[in-house]
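Changelog-linked ticket: 9Z3 example.
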Amino acid sequence: MTIVNRTQSLEKIHTSAPKLESAIDRSVPESGPAEVDEETNYFATNPEPPYLAEIQQQVNEFIAFHSGKRRIALVTSGGTTVPLENNTVRFIDNFSAGTRGATSTEYFIENGYAVIFLHRQFSLLPYSRHYSHNTNCFLDYLDENESGTVVISKEYQEEMKVVLNKYQKAKDDNLMLFVPFTTVNQYLFTLRLISLELKPVHSTCLFFLAAAVSDFFLPTSKVAEHKIQSQGGGGKLVVDLDPVPKFLKRLVEEWAPNAMIVSFKLETDEKLLLFKARQALTRYSHQLVIGNLLQTRKREVVFVTTDDAVDYTISEEEEARGVEIESVIIPKVIDAHSTWISQHKQ
Ligand code: 9Z3
């Protein structure tokens, strides 16, 4: 069977470019009827990304390819943006380099999963993350040998071979589908689409929601068409954002009620973390919330379930040696997933 390189084809989608026909469709109602809940209203009043049908097809093929053979994980990764202008010069961003999602994806694949990687375009990707976005320029990995050929420098050869082999195996076995987003609107529409497409395999698939999703957004009807000028408004820019609807509730209750769902809770105040993680679990009634603090996220997380809160940590010294906390937590998540699957078998 020929395996199409889906990774590349989907990366051709430009989620960060404004649409050519940049005018906003003012016929879209500002808000729906009062009796419609805010999630339904959101999808009715904000525009669907134009490339969604293409994603739908790729996702369908990927699911059909793996269905019945292995478990599928939907991993979300990176931060969403909230554009302030339709022809976007300014936007509000959510912090996330994409390390958690990209690293976790590698461990899921190593443990037999196929992964739909819904990620912020240009954030870290599985495998290439080892060589992108760090202080080295990629040219620092290269050298010229005696015959004038450009090669990988000796000091990186061994490590790069290991990563390359894993990457090629994942690609050859068609184990990753990369789906990009930039804005929170693109994220929400694409998350809903993928969740619904996964329906036939919900009982064995895992949602691993590591993306940093904005809590606030600017409804389409309020987004300025062109670059906001500094002369108006007495030189001030006052931004009035609406709350993003509680999409996790929708996901758990309607889009994927039969799947295991793991969400992350990010805080910066240690005193709030457990409370907020427990609150999310109670509010949405899904299976697991992984709490982390921005400052220590690479060394400490807490798994919060209805009856437990378990810390997983690696030491600073382990981190310095290159140990990744995902190597500890992903096997635990997979164990929990196995238990969950066996308990939900009809
Ligand atoms: C996380 O908490 C992730 O672990 C991080 C990973 C974003 C901290 P990096 O990509 O960072 O490795 O640099 N993700 C979830 C963040 C989030 O927005 N959660 C929402 C919330 O806290 C719920 S979906 O309310």
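Closing comment: Example verified and attached. The pocket of 9Z3 is lined by residues 96-100, 209-210, 212-213, 263-266, 292, 297 (CB under 6 Å). The chain has ten helices and 14 strands.
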